[in-house]
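During the reporting period the student researcher (J.K.) took over the structure-prediction task from the postdoctoral fellow and processed the backlog of single-chain submissions. One of the processed entries is reproduced below for the supervisory committee.
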Amino acid sequence: MIILTLNCWSYSVRYQLFDWRNQSVLAGGTVERVLIGDTYLEHEVPGRDKYRLERECPDHRTAIELILQTLTHPDHGVLRSTADIAAVGHRVVHGGEKFTSSVRIDTAVMDAVRDVEHLAPQHNTNNIAGIDAAQALLPALPHVAIFDTAFHQTMPEYAYIYPLPYEWYEKYGVRRYGFHGASHLYVSKRAAVNLGKPAADCNLITMHIGKGTSLCAIKNGISVDTSMGLTPIEGTMMGTRCGDIDPGIPPFIMHHQDISPREMDTILNQKSGVLGVTGRFKDRRDIIDQIAAGNERCRLSLEMETYRLKKYIGAYLAVVGRLDALVFTAGVGVMGWQLREKALAGLEEMGIVLDLDKNREAVSPEREAEISAPTSRVKIFIIPTAEELVFAEDTASILDGSYTDHMHHAYSFTRPDFRRS
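J.K. obtained the following structure tokens:
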């Protein structure tokens, strides 16, 4: 069974092709700069050199056409034709309250996804464009939606309702939803394996730290709170998003600078966070290099980001009680040893003790590692995420009828002998 997964962003499309029966990745890559010009595709096949092709893609449909052409290319592809594909799994960022798990896409599902498009316009709009394009190009195939928000639908009401007029929730769906669900699902299951315990017996704090950052409080294997909210802007400081701020600041600045709500939304999402503080940089690798060169704004940015991570860890420790493990994942979480070191400094009284040498050595984008000291009551893990694997497995399981909720589904990566492809 060959499964194609698609992850459509504003200006890119990421894809992977899985041979599900053999549990292997056949190919993967990204089309970058979709819509904005100078588009290029980077395509990788295990055992081959990376293939790069420059070709303009003015929309997501053209980008997905290019992906399918590349996957079936006689020299660079891995398929005889698109008829070899059994199904397509699509990442959908926002599913609102309707979806608590992945589902096969039909007209009713698409109507529901469009109904909540206003809750994540920078994401769902592109997810919808990708689904529409893929269904037009591959109309005979089943398509499956995997929702970022689904994993967090176990949060209790007191955790997801905001202290705002209740009719806003009733009329407009204003509540906490949370995101990065597939990532938190994957790393929480892997953490349970590393702890040698059933997921239902594990209390965890998982930290997805990349361009966007979200933390999740997991009690007895399920999400009970998460840092992102109605939109992905809430929470801790991120690459270009502000995270938690005084809600009085936007109207204050809008009044003084005479800017529109749309302009303010752009500032908070795309010009704040690390980029806003430094005025120039959003990549944490650049931040570290600039700190070494004496850049004080970059030093301040790192201090702010790690301080806010530390505050969330303390808050979520209070939520979950007995904590089995902290988990770092995503690009910065996996590779940023400086960030991990500063975020965990001073947490020894909470039973969280980092092994400094292990932490500095653990900078592999593929390898899981334990970086806690022997004296630490709480395990500290680095677990590279595998969201596309969750997309593919949910899709394959829905096709063969074995899919169920994540606490009862026998995911391949929950096996002790699991090895990343």
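The committee noted the following: The longest strand covers residues 24-32.
J.K. will present the remaining backlog at the next meeting.
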